[in-house]
Amino acid sequence: MRNGGKISAAIDVLTDVLNRHQPVKSAARDWGKRARYAGSKDRAWVSGLVLDALRKRNSIAYRMDDESPRALVLGALAFAWGWDIRQIDTAMEEEHAPSKLTLSEREHLVMAPDPSAPPHVQGDYPEWMAPMMARVFGEEATVEAQAMAVRADVDLRVNTLKVDAEKASMPLKSAKAEQSRLLHNAFHIPAKDPSEREASLESIPAYSKGWVEVQDAGSQIAAAAANAQPGEQVLDYCSGGGGKTIALAAQMKGKGQIFAYDIDGKRLSALIPRLKRSGAHNVQLVHPTEPVQLETLTGQMDCVFVDAPCTGTGTWRRRPDSKWRIKQGQLEKRMSEQTEIIAKASEFVKPGGRMIYATCSFLMEEDEDRVAEFLSMHPEFTEEDAAGAAIASGLLTDEGANVVQRFRMPTGSVRLTPRRAGTDGFFFAVLRRAG
């Protein structure tokens, strides 16, 4: 496909995302079914342009004085991809391209950013979230949000149940993976140019062998705060896809027992092939249709990990479409669910045991507020130093240790963000039950 046709396709996909409220993956997949002539590179180009238009939706619409899919796609070419008017003109003259640029579009495409634009415009986040952004980040809200509006690296965790980092590094060279600066047993693949196709990790033998798992560095650090020890009894209460379950199994060197539970039985069942690939043999799935099995664990766990369902604001770099779908009512629903989940999960912690509460959200309403509310109602629990717990695991590099110490909250919890740590947005706290 030539650029003009791909620009037209990006406008069509973005129209489905905005007007039909489709996730980008679904809209792009539907377009791909209609456009059988499009190759993998073409599909990556189109998806990359749509995602960048969404990442910078507010600022593009403001500069273009137009929030239509066409304006957002053209603005993404100019403001995110760095195309000049000549490049855009050339593409728009090709066969299957959209109509040529209007005079108004030309004027706006060369317009400089307005430093007086509102924070939610400069930071590209929903306007209704402005008070929450200001609460958590203060005067740095705009620059923090801008760091969430760029492409993210791909992070890999070395599965030490099968291999060490040195041995894993050799086959990862083909994917241009680099040693993580934050974690000893981790690598990251720098984000590619938005128009380029991402490398398929499934095609790398190290992945199919179970030597590495895709897991954001922030998620790995949160898992490290559990500091799970060989021989312990551990419950991953909201295991979801099982990324942290497998990370905990590696920490425990396959000794002891991990119980993986999730209210969504389908997601839990999807963990089975992942466990098989990882070689983690000390994991037992606790299915939601068998509540008696879960109840037998009450008061028995050395460690309960709660990766609570949340708004996912910390993943905006990877899922920019979700940024514009979230509504205040959904946030309030999540907060209610988190209150219920953390209270229920605490029942499984034995005297002297610990609970890790984590979210992939940077909102205090889902983080510190929920922890403070729980502690006010459960005096048998106290908050400990989450940064110290992550460091004690031995998984963090010196730089990783400095990062968690620097962004440790007064109460002991830790908040990581793309700007602060180069990770997704993550919050984690360690709560200890009295012995």
Outline the fold blueprint:
Blueprint: H1 3-19, H2 24-34, H3 40-55, H4 57-64, H5 69-80, H6 85-92, H7 103-109, H8 119-122, H9 130-137, H10 141-147, E1 154-158, H11 165-172, E2 178-179, E3 186-189, H12 205-208, E4 212-214, H13 217-224, E5 233-236, H14 243-251, E6 257-261, H15 265-269, H16 271-278, E7 283-286, H17 291-295, E8 301-307, H18 320-325, H19 328-346, E9 349-359, H20 368-377, E10 381-384, H21 386-392, H22 398-406, E11 414-416, H23 418-421, E12 426-433
Parallel strand pairs: 5-6, 5-8, 6-7, 8-9
Antiparallel strand pairs: 1-3, 1-4, 2-3, 9-12, 10-12, 11-12
Organism: Hyphomonas oceanitis SCH89
GO molecular function: RNA binding; RNA methyltransferase activity
Binding site for S-adenosyl-L-methionine: 262, 307
Give an overview in words.
- This protein is α/β, with parallel strands linked by helices and 435 residues long.
- The protein folds into 2 domains: 110 residues, no CATH class; 217 residues, Vaccinia Virus protein VP39 (Rossmann fold).
- The protein contains 23 helices and 12 strands.
- The strands form 2 sheets. Strands 5, 6, 7, 8, 9, 10, 11 and 12 form an 8-stranded mixed beta sheet that branches. A 4-stranded antiparallel beta sheet has the order 2-3-1-4.
- Helix 1 crosses helix 2, helix 3 packs across helix 5 and helix 13 packs across helix 14.
- The chain starts with a helix and ends with a strand.
- The mean pLDDT is 93.
